[in-house]
């Protein structure tokens, strides 16, 4: 009995230490930057914090796409002990804001004039109720087309710039004996291709109406039917071994030259770089066919939780300032393959794909065409996104479902998911 | 502790302190309960308490975090209107029935073959039983490669020259659910075989001998004499297999990831997706309650028959 008591005491003590783990002048950051390059990038931030005299308590939770990290975060938040900052993105920031758990960053935002620094679309996502509650870390572009130049040459085609050229190029590549489009049959990859095809065939205005504002007329209309038909055609360009394949295996097919092209966000670049290839020579990148004047973004951000002590609050503000400072932006984005969230940086260190990405980012931010990615949780809430994923992936894999029916289902999905 | 107390008790009696016998006797009666109390309390709280909590959550509009905004059976209504839930439930039916039946047939058949007093029976038994030692994740990954049309069986047979051979169930939404059955049967039928073999060894040889004397053929002996004796084994095997089927989660995740599309979704993967990744805790809880209902529908008749037979025995 005595030992039992001792254990309980020890457990209780351990619990108490855990609960007060985030000391004054220290930030505890929950993130899932755990792969080699990402972890090094996160370490840069830690060193910067320490150089300013603040502690950094790492709270890295590994697991694909941050699902595990989110589960941990939810349980921490429910027990009334959230970390000071967490990697939360897109509309989820609004959901956490609605729960009243986020603290504001207005002081640092005013001091660093974020309003001018960040494009309006990006700033909107970082704000809840007109207060800055999160800081953008990087910008990924989703609408990329990657290609192996040797395969394109063997098939005698150029990098396609419209959907028609894309399908024609695909046929030529198949005739030359390669897989035209590398793909993995997972719901999010299906959705990634889908949104690029919607954007490429129907334009960014339609994309905004249908997949961001969820306008039922756009979702169920003729343009959506046309987009769905285009989407189904891309399936003919894929190989039959794609079921459940991971995206990086699909990228490897392009690298090895068994497949010609892949539609994937710019994290695919990490795979090309790791294989020792050079952008523009050993592999090609271009905006997904027909989407030259558009940019679907996927932005990682750190949201700040409301904290009690002034010291911890101060540390949060410093963290937010450092995240947007050029040193970290450059180091982190070079490692991750994305582009900096602030457009005013010197890009000479970055490769040609990243430079083009940033140029397009600035251009689309000014001229319109900068839209959030639906497939990567930037456009709609998680439940609506899930319901749309279900329709998209079911339609894509069902040979008998007409596009009209899929469009109608999408309308219902958008309505039914919101309770 | 249980040993030391009665000793104190007996040593107290000769000293004329018999009065103490009553309280220490009741302590003796209470002690096991006291000792068991923490584990009972823990399982009450963590198992039944959380079941209750899940039920409460299924009546709320909870999304990302639990909330207590009650909406009655609204989440159940949504669930019933959700096409994916029906796909998942139908899949569970197909998977559950086929998995249990095929495992029983193959398991019984293998057991009968092994029962023919063959050489090296121990080694053979081990070979058939080993798949059970693997986790479903390993089984899933291996079968995923075997069934992949460009890497596995189809590619192999085609490379032998049978160009028209096709075995691409895993990429066909209508057939993909049967690939789950294949992998699960491969894993579990050896275990069923072991159950049957144990049952066969328990049958009195003289019954079989008597049947042989009466001139019954071997298949007839097995069908009319041996199998009826194995009814309890069949019963336990069905119970074990049925709950493996209902709880199946890892196999789906590793083998098909629920795909193509959501063609191989099962209630467990549905529940996980909605409660944990799609911020619909209310809907996820409702589906969890329905799964619990399914498990109870199997468990209660089982417990009932078990308890009843014990009373009679």
UniProtKB/TrEMBL annotation, chain A:
Question: What InterPro entries does this protein map onto?
Answer: Bact_solute-bd_prot1, SBP
Quote the subcellular location field of this record.
Periplasm
Q: Name one Pfam family in it.
A: SBP_bac_1
Claim: Iron is one of the keywords in the record = no
Residues of the signal sequence? 1-24
Which keywords has UniProt assigned to this entry? Signal, Transport
The cross-references to SUPFAM superfamilies, in alphabetical order and at most eight, read: Periplasmic binding protein-like II
Instruction: Give a yes or no for keyword Signal in this entry.
Output: yes
Q: Name one GO cellular component term.
A: periplasmic space
What family is this protein classified in? Belongs to the bacterial solute-binding protein 1 family.
What does the protein in this record do? Part of a binding-protein-dependent transport system for a sugar.
- Name of the featured protein: Probable sugar-binding periplasmic protein
Organism expressing this protein natively: Vreelandella nigrificans
Organism lineage string: Bacteria, Pseudomonadati, Pseudomonadota, Gammaproteobacteria, Oceanospirillales
């Amino acid at each position: 009995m005595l030992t039992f008591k001792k254990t309980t005491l020890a457990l209780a003590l351990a619990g108490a230490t855990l609960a007060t783990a985030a000391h004054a002048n220290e930030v505890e950051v929950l993130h899932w930057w755990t792969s080699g390059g990402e972890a090094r990038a996160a370490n840069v931030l830690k060193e910067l914090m320490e150089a300013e005299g603040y502690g950094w308590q790492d709270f890295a939770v590994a697991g694909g796409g941050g699902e595990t990290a989110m589960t941990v975060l939810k349980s921490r938040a429910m027990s009334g002990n959230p970390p000071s900052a967490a990697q939360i993105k897109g509309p989820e920031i609004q959901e956490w804001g609605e729960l009243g758990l986020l603290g504001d960053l207005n002081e640092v935002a005013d001091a660093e004039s974020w309003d001018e620094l960040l494009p309006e679309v990006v700033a909107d996502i970082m704000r809840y109720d007109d207060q800055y509650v999160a800081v953008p870390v990087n910008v990924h572009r989703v609408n990329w087309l990657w290609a192996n130049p040797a395969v394109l040459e063997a098939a005698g085609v150029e990098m396609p710039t419209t959907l028609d050229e894309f399908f024609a190029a695909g046929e030529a590549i198949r005739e030359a004996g390669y897989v035209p489009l590398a793909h993995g049959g997972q719901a999010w990859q299906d959705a990634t291709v889908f949104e690029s095809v919607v954007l490429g065939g129907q334009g960014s205005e339609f994309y905004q109406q249908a997949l961001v504002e969820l306008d039922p007329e756009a979702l169920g209309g003729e343009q959506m039917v046309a987009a769905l038909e285009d989407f189904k055609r891309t399936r003919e360009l894929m190989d039959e071994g794609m079921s459940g394949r991971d995206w990086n295996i699909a990228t490897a097919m392009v690298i090895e030259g068994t497949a010609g092209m892949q539609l994937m966000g710019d994290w695919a670049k990490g795979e090309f770089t790791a294989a020792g290839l050079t952008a523009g020579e050993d592999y090609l990148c271009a905006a997904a066919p027909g989407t030259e004047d558009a940019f679907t973004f996927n932005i990682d951000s750190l949201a700040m939780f409301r904290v009690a002590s002034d010291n911890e609050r101060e540390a949060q503000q410093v963290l937010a300032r450092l995240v947007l400072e050029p040193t970290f932006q450059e180091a982190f984005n070079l490692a991750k393959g994305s582009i900096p969230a602030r457009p005013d940086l010197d890009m000479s260190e970055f490769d040609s794909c990243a430079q083009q990405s940033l140029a397009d980012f600035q251009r689309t931010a000014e001229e319109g065409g900068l839209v959030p990615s639906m497939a990567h949780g930037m456009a709609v809430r998680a439940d609506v996104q899930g319901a749309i994923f279900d329709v998209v992936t079911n339609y894509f894999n069902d040979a008998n479902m007409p596009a009209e029916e899929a469009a109608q289902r999408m309308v219902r999905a958008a309505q039914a998911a919101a309770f | 502790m249980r040993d030391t107390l009665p000793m104190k008790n007996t040593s107290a009696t000769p000293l004329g302190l018999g009065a103490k016998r009553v309280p220490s006797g009741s302590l003796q009666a209470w002690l096991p309960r006291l000792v068991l109390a923490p584990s009972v309390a823990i399982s009450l709280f963590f198992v039944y308490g959380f079941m209750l909590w899940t039920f409460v959550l299924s009546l709320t509009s909870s999304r990302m975090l639990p909330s207590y905004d009650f909406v009655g059976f609204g989440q159940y209504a949504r669930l019933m209107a959700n096409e994916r839930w029906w796909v998942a439930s139908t899949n569970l039916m197909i998977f559950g029935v086929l998995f249990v039946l095929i495992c029983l047939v193959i398991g019984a058949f293998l057991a009968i073959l092994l029962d023919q007093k063959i050489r090296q029976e121990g080694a053979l038994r081990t070979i058939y039983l080993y798949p059970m030692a693997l986790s479903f994740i390993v089984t899933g990954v291996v079968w995923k490669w075997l069934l992949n049309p460009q890497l596995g069986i189809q590619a192999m047979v085609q490379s032998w020259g049978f160009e028209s051979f096709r075995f691409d169930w895993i990429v066909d939404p209508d057939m993909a659910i049967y690939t789950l059955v294949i992998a699960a049967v491969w894993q579990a039928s050896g275990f069923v075989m072991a159950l049957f073999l144990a049952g066969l060894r328990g049958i009195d040889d003289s019954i079989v001998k008597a049947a042989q004397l009466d001139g019954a053929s071997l298949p007839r002996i097995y069908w009319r004499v041996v199998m009826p004796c194995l009814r309890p084994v069949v019963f336990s095997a069905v119970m074990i297999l049925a709950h493996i089927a209902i709880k199946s989660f890892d196999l789906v995740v590793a083998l098909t990831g629920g795909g193509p599309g959501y063609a191989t979704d099962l209630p467990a993967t549905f529940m996980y997706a909605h409660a944990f990744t799609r911020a619909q805790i209310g809907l996820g809880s409702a589906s969890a309650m329905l799964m619990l209902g399914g498990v109870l529908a199997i468990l209660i008749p089982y417990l009932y028959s078990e308890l009843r037979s014990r009373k009679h025995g």
